[in-house]
């Protein structure tokens, strides 16, 4: 398919969806390159699922445009459907059927003949570590098994574009890792993945690019590295000898770094951003000035580090920014 390798997988401009007077999606512009994982990150109610549902042709946009591999999601919905697959937050397998029956049924619906359907089901069950649970009803699966059978169902026919809407929410670390491996595998076979998540570490590990959405708008977009550097070059972490001097240390850091200081649960720890936009000094220079100011006040620092902010810090900084009225 030529349109799979040329041009972006998804392009939206000014995409809007309203529910009553709630603009759930409020003018979203996205360009998702083909062949990688694209992360859509946002808090509850940000509009992630609504964007996905419009792209998957399940919901009609109220404004703007969206194209999937060059095909308009409204005017060429059938073309789009042929290329995409969706694993929703609330997925589509039949609870009363076994894992194997579900996959065979779906494979038959996709036009595989019976022996081929049986073979494909067995292959996927093995790939997803579900062989032992193949003949158990899906309603008796654990959350992690359920998520894996959902993804297996959505890649029966290798789609060009796979929507994964919060595929790991509520999973334990081991199951999350398994799902991550599956996602990497799917992408290695040429599928583009649009992944929505509330977990920043997940986006950080899997996604080549990330859009952060809040209140139905894209508030930041870029590679994980670009997003991190957009909110400041560095994150300063300090541990004090004496917890009683922490309030004083926080004031000194806030002054020296011209920004907010976070007090960690640990009573001797403080964290702050350095090198934020608008400052004419680099992060390292600011951080060393801050350390000098602490020393001058006679506050003993036991441990100090200057690193890239985590995506969590980025996310908090970005979403806090949008709460300020424009
Ligand atoms: N079918 C609907 N009818 C009315 N309002 C809706 C409908 N679907 C979503 N909304 C509203 O649209 C907004 C965005 O919802 P959406 O489900 O897209 O958020 P989300 O980012 O996926 O959140 P979550 O992380 O909780 O899944 C919310 O205010 C929600 O209440
Ligand atoms: Mg959602």
What fraction strand?
25-35%
Q: Domains counted in the coordinates: how many?
A: 2
Number of helices: 12
> In what order do the strands lie side by side in the largest sheet?
6-7-8-3-9-10
In the CATH hierarchy, what is the class of the largest domain? Alpha Beta
Span between N and C termini? 45 Å
User: Helix and strand string, N-terminal first?
Assistant: HEEEHEEHEHHHEHEHEEHEHEEHEH
Q: CATH superfamily assignment of the largest domain?
A: P-loop containing nucleotide triphosphate hydrolases
Ligands, deduplicated: adenosine-5'-triphosphate, magnesium ion
User: Level of helix content?
Assistant: 25-40%
GO molecular function: ATP binding; ATP hydrolysis activity
Protein name: Daunorubicin resistance protein DrrA family ABC transporter ATP-binding protein
InterPro entries: AAA+_ATPase, ABC_transporter-like_ATP-bd, ABC_transporter-like_CS, ABC_transporter_ATP-binding, DrrA, P-loop_NTPase
Pfam families: ABC_tran
Topology:
Elements: H1 2-5, E1 10-19, E2 22-32, E3 37-41, H2 48-55, E4 63-68, E5 71-72, H3 77-83, E6 84-87, H4 99-109, H5 114-127, H6 143-154, E7 161-165, H7 173-188, E8 192-197, H8 200-206, E9 209-214, E10 217-222, H9 224-230, E11 234-240, H10 246-257, E12 261-263, E13 269-274, H11 283-296, E14 301-307, H12 311-323
Parallel strand pairs: 3-8, 3-9, 6-7, 7-8
Antiparallel strand pairs: 1-2, 1-4, 4-5, 9-10, 11-13, 11-14, 12-13
This protein binds adenosine-5'-triphosphate (ATP) and magnesium ion (MG).
